[in-house]
Specification:
Structural class: alpha/beta
CATH class: Alpha Beta
Order of helices and strands: EHEEEHEEHEHEHHEHH
Number of helices: 8
CATH superfamily: P-loop containing nucleotide triphosphate hydrolases
CATH architecture: 3-Layer(aba) Sandwich
Largest sheet: 5 strands, parallel
Strand content: 15-25%
Bound molecules: adenosine-5'-diphosphate, guanosine-5'-monophosphate
Distance between the termini: 14 Å
Helix content: 40-55%
């Protein structure tokens, strides 16, 4: 069986990753999503186990010690990490998995899974990013300022990603994202079984 592909999605907070991913899942429902373990407090509207498992710092540090995480990082004072087992199981079962991480997490994953495909979600401008963070209404001003500060660092790392999708018009961005995932199935390393089958090996 061909292995599944890991797709990494990153982008500054407020660039619209969550909103975009919801659209992407409507268009490509067969892709799996990695649920991160995090220690940040739950925001209004968030649901345990949907995008995140909200856990204590003690439990997070236990996961680090037990080597249960594929990657982890501290973002604006809280731990965020990707549990390892679900990702490895999905890939071994031939399924594609989407992992949302910040740029530090992306570098860690690429070291362990070098053929992961990385996609950076870019806001149309810094002004629009600021307006989206403020308009979302989930964070107080001091947190927004820290997130904007992080955004500059993250955007300067966008050059290390395989693809950049600008999230201006949502529908267009979602179609572009799905196109990147679709073209991947034609890559040679996804079709090694086909070559062997045709050659009757
Ligand atoms: P992230 O997950 O990257 O932190 P969100 O998905 O929470 O970002 O989006 C931040 C805010 O921007 C939300 O209020 C969302 O409704 C809005 N938003 C996201 N994408 C777009 C878009 N293409 N056009 C206009 N507003 C958007
Ligand atoms: P938020 O608090 O806005 O949900 O997420 C803050 C940042 O953490 C975003 O850049 C988001 O992409 C990133 N993030 C979400 N899950 C993970 C994870 O499992 N690992 C890492 N390293 N970053 C994550």
């Amino acid at each position: 069986m061909n292995k599944g592909r890991v797709f990494i999605i990153s982008g500054p907070s407020g660039s619209g990753k969550d909103t975009l991913m919801k659209k992407v899942f409507e268009k490509a429902p067969d892709i799996l999503f990695s649920i991160s373990s995090i220690t940040r407090p739950m925001r209004v509207g968030e649901v345990e186990g949907e995008k995140y498992n909200f856990i204590s710092r003690e439990r997070f540090e236990e996961m680090i010690a037990n080597d249960e995480l594929l990657e982890h990082n501290v973002f604006v004072g809280n731990y965020y990490g990707t549990p390892k087992a679900p990702v490895l199981n999905a890939v071994n079962d031939g399924k594609n998995m989407l992992i949302e991480v910040d740029v530090n997490g992306a570098y860690q994953i690429l070291e362990k899974i070098p053929d992961a495909v990385s996609i950076f979600i870019m806001p149309p401008s810094l002004e629009i990013l600021k307006a989206r963070l403020t308009g979302r209404g989930t964070d107080e001003q001091s947190v927004i300022d820290k997130r904007l500060f992080e955004a500059l660092r993250e955007i300067s790392c966008a050059k290390d990603y395989d693809y950049i999708v600008v999230n201006d018009d949502l529908e267009t961005a979602a179609n572009e994202f799905v196109s990147i995932m679709s073209v991947d199935k034609f890559k040679t390393d996804r079709n090694l079984e086909l070559i062997n089958k045709i050659l009757n090996k």
